[in-house]
DNA sequence: ACCTTGCCTTGAACGCCGTCACCGTTCCGA
DNA sequence: TCGGAACGGTGACGGCGTTCAAGGCAAGGT
């Protein structure tokens, strides 16, 4: 009696089956890929990849939020990107991982040996195409962030950050385009927000305080944010 | 008598035939692609794409240097990237061009209607693979630039910029790893350098002056730079 | 030869944000 | 329940880079 490996129905039950780069694969392809990947749990704060290491792993994010970051020689850090469920992670077709990857929340990822993944991708153009579309979109997003880092002041940066977070986390306010009440829990500490925006923790804190004092947002607790005046916040972000 | 269109041997004679994304295509594929593209000349300062416009064109850079940029609501500009011969340009598989493209020097590009290119790419995985590798590399480069924008001071930014320019323009000093005498002509004005680095023109100018006074570089003319002390410049960039 | 124009350099003063210091709060495990 | 560490908020101060202003320099036209 041959036991069906648990892995076989893994992908079929995957929460991101229809959103990740594997979405266009058919059943037989999925089963093949299934054999290559394995699910892995990460605790908040746990590191998956280290900047400069040999690129051995790539992964899909199933659940949770992770950061990509690198540091300067003098110890400062810059967060290069934040990845969410269904996002792809790692550096295919490359020698070294150019940035570190760390879980911001508890997370599940679907990891592959890079060599396995590369081979599979080259043999399955539909997967490569998905990966290309995703990479192009990520490049666009990254370039937009350069405008923030290079040309915005602290107020504009923090306002932009809050608006983007509300959007990416799909903050509750599904009551149509109603302005009030977008609420979400930050997956980042103040220090990490500072590292995303190229600011210091103190400056971020002061901007939060000011936005709250001005009635644009509420801060029920350290990690929670409610956007009260979406339009006004957009003005600050301009 | 059927005249062979000039286009047929176009790609074969192309200066970037073996470096651009078309490098892996065979003769029949190249001929097909040839029928879709056309060569176009751009004068220095001429604009090829406008930020926010519908994405109608993509292109390969054959000769010259171009910038990708976008602007803030209040009129400031940020240069998002600089593209060199054999680089790919534009936004395949997307609705809108997320940044403007302008020639910094006189340039030749090989342009395609995006719809044509998208169709061709989907039918030719080898091309898509090349494009993917290029996009991944560009994403790495862009992310490294975020570290510069977010976490470096003016001196580090300008030093890094000069070193990168020397490398990308393949500055003369091919006398082995000899330190002295890397010379090149800047394809950017001081204002454009400022827009790359997220600084003002005055700050860029002052840093240039200081590096010259400290003997790290020479500035024979406005657009020419000689790196005299490569190692010392790297120290300033750290 | 002169003026015009665009680009770059230089100087002076301001102001944003980083730095430093300290305190309050929250969240742990002991 | 307590103690301690991690995290976050706030104030004072100063430095770095922007802003504002003026002048130098090279190229091109008349």
Description:
2 copies of one chain form a homodimer. The first copy, chain A, has 238 residues and is an alpha+beta fold. The first copy, chain A, has 2 domains: 2-148, Sandwich (Jelly Rolls), CATH 2.60.120; 152-237, Orthogonal Bundle (Arc Repressor Mutant, subunit A). In chain A, 38% of the residues lie in helices and 22% in strands. The first copy, chain A, contains 7 helices and 11 strands. Chain A has helices spanning 27-36, 114-123, 125-151, 154-168, 190-197, 201-213, 230-237, and strands at residues 38-42, 47-49, 57-63, 66-71, 77-83, 88-90, 100-103, 107-113, 182-185, 217-218, 224-227. Chain A has a 4-stranded antiparallel beta sheet with strand order 1-8-3-6. A 4-stranded antiparallel beta sheet of chain A has the order 2-7-4-5. In chain A, α4 packs across α7 and α5 crosses α6. The longest helix of chain A is centred in the middle third of the chain and has 27 residues, at 125-151. The N and C termini of chain A lie far apart (65 Å). The relative contact order of chain A is 0.12. The A-B interface holds A 68, 70, 72-74, 76-78, 80-81, 91-94, 98-99, 122, 125, 128-129, 131-133, 135-140, 142-147, 149-152, 197-198, 238 and B 68, 70, 72-74, 76-78, 80-81, 91-94, 98-99, 122, 125, 128-129, 131-133, 135-140, 142-147, 149-152, 197-198, 238. Chain A binds a DNA duplex (30 and 30 nucleotides) through residues 153-154, 189-191, 199-203, 205-206, 208-209, 221-222.
């Amino acid at each position: 009696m041959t036991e069906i490996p648990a892995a076989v129905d893994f992908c079929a039950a995957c929460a991101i089956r229809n959103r990740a780069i594997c979405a266009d694969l058919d059943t037989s392809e999925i089963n093949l890929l299934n054999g290559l990947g394995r699910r892995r749990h990460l605790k908040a704060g746990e590191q998956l990849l280290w900047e400069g290491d040999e690129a051995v792993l790539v992964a899909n994010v199933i659940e949770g939020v992770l950061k990509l970051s690198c540091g300067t020689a003098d110890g400062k850090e810059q967060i290069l990107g934040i990845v969410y469920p269904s996002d792809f992670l790692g550096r295919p077709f490359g020698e070294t991982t150019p940035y570190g990857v760390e879980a911001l929340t508890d997370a599940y990822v679907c990891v592959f040996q890079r060599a396995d993944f590369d081979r599979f991708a080259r043999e399955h153009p539909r997967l490569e195409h998905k990966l290309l579309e995703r990479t192009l979109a990520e490049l666009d997003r990254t370039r937009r962030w350069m405008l923030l880092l290079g040309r915005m002041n602290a107020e504009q940066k923090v306002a932009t950050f809050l608006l983007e977070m509300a959007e990416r986390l799909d903050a509750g306010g599904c009551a149509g385009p109603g302005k009030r009440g977008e609420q979400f829990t930050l997956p980042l500490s103040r220090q990490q927000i500072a590292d995303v925006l190229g600011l210091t923790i103190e400056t971020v804190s002061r901007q939060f305080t000011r936005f709250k004092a001005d009635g644009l947002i509420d801060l029920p607790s350290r990690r929670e944010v409610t956007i009260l005046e979406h339009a006004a916040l957009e003005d600050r972000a301009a």
